[in-house]
Amino acid sequence: MRQKVVDITNRPTDSDPIKIAAELNRLEPKKRARTLQQMPTEMIDAVFWQLEPEDQAVVLDNVPHDQVIRLLESMDPDDRVHLFQAMPADLISRLMTQLSPRERHCTELLLAYPKETAGRIMTPEFIRLKPGMTVSDGLAEVRRHRDKAETIYVLPVSDDAMRLVGVVELEDLVLAEPDERIQKLIREPQYSVSAWDDQEVTARLIQAADLFAVPVVEKDNRLVGLVTVDDAMDVLQSEETEDIARAGATEPIGRAYFSVSPVRLVRSRIVWLSLLALAGTLTVNVLSAFETTLEAVVSLALFIPLLIGIGGNTGAQSATTIVRAMATEEIHTGDLLRVLLREGLVGLILGALLGIIAFLVVSVIFDRDIALIVTLTLIIICTLASLVGSSMPLFARIVGVDPAVVSAPVVTTVVDATGLLVYFLIAATVLGL
C-alpha cells in the first residue's frame, strides 16, 4: 500500500517543529527526507533537532552532502555525539574531518568519554565566571559569549586553573548590585558530578534538586562542562522507555514506531518470547506430574486459570512497584530484607482477603474440601508471588543485571509453575491422594 506524503510545509497550523517531527516519523525514510528538504532552512534545522538520533541518521542518508555538513554544524556538541552513536564508525571519521575546527574539537572531547557517562551528554560550551569578578563584569561576559554557550541561565564559577568554585544563576546576577563580587552570589548547596558518573545518576540529581544544569568536573575538580536539564530529561525518558519495553518482555526499538521495519520489531520480541516459552515448560511439567491427581478430582482443573492468573498478577504488581522504586532511588539493594518483609505481609493480606471470598463462593458450588484447597492456595500463592516479584529485581541489581529484565513476564512465568506446584501439593494433602 502506498503511503500518503503529508504536505506539512503548506499547513500554517502545523508550524510547530515538534508536531512536524512527529508527522515526519510517520513517513518512510526517503519520503521523510524529501519532505524535510521542501521546508525553509530554519524550519529544517528546528525539525531535524526534534528527531531521534537514529531517525536523524536516516535523514542524513537521504539528503545532499552539503546539507549534511550544515545540519551537523548547527547541532550542539552533545546532540551531535548522540547522532554519531547511531552511525557507522567509518562514516563518523569522514564527517569529523569536514567539521569546523571548533565543532570538531568539542565533539572529540565528548567522544573521549565512555558511553552512558555524564561526559557524553555534557556541553563543553558554557560561560565561565571568576570569583573576583564584579556583577557588572559577569554580565558583560554573558553578553560577550552568549552565542557560544548552550545555556546562559547557569554560570559555573572557577579559578584560573579551571577548578570549580561554585555556580551562579543568571537570575541572581541580574538582580544583584553591579559592584558586588561573584563570590558572594554562589548558590548553596553546591552540586557537581564527575565526567565518568553514570548518565542516569546525573539526570536523577538534576531532577531531584530542581537544577537547570549541573557542572561536570574531572580529577582535581577541574571544570569541563555542564549537563543541562533538557539532556537530563532525554536520559530519563530513554531509561524509562527501556524499562517499560523490558517489563513487557521486549527490547526497546529506540525509534519512532513507523520508522522501524516489521523485521526489526520481530527481532526485538522473538528472543524474549522464546525464553518465556522455554520457561513455560515448567508449568507443563507440573501438570504432567500431577496428572493422576487431576484425574481423581476433575474439578481441581477448573481453578487452575484463576489461581495462576491471580498469582502471576500479584507477582507482576510487586515487581513493577519495586522496579519503579529502584529507578527513582527509593529502594537500594541493602533494603532487601525490609522489602521482603513488607511485600510478604502485603501478599499474605491480599491472599487472605481473596481466600475468604473464594471460600464463601466455592463452598456453595462445590464441597468444603475444594473450597479449603483454593483458599489455602490463594493465601500461599499471593504471599509467594509478592516475595518472588519483589526479590528478583533486587537480586538482578546485585548481580549487575537490569532489574527490568526480570520483571513482570519473567516473574509471572516463575509464579505460574510454583503456584501450580503449591496447589496440587495442598490438594493431595487435604484430599489424601
TrEMBL record:
An annotated GO cellular component: plasma membrane
Intracellular or extracellular location(s): Cell membrane; Membrane
Ranges where the CBS domain occurs: 122-185, 186-244
Organism: Methyloceanibacter marginalis
GO MF assignments: magnesium ion transmembrane transporter activity; metal ion binding
Protein name: Magnesium transporter MgtE
PANTHER family listed in its UniProt record: MAGNESIUM TRANSPORTER MGTE
Primary location: membrane
Function in brief: Acts as a magnesium transporter.
Presence of the UniProt keyword Transmembrane in the record: yes
Membrane topology value: Multi-pass membrane protein
InterPro entries documented for this protein: CBS_dom, CBS_dom_sf, Mg_transptr_MgtE_intracell_dom, MgtE_N_sf, MgtE_transporter, SLC41_membr_dom, SLC41_membr_dom_sf
Record-annotated membrane-spanning stretches: 270-290, 296-316, 345-366, 372-396, 408-431
Record family assignment: Belongs to the SLC41A transporter family.
Subunit structure: Homodimer.
Keyword field: CBS domain, Cell membrane, Magnesium, Membrane, Metal-binding, Transmembrane, Transmembrane helix, Transport
SMART domains: CBS, MgtE_N
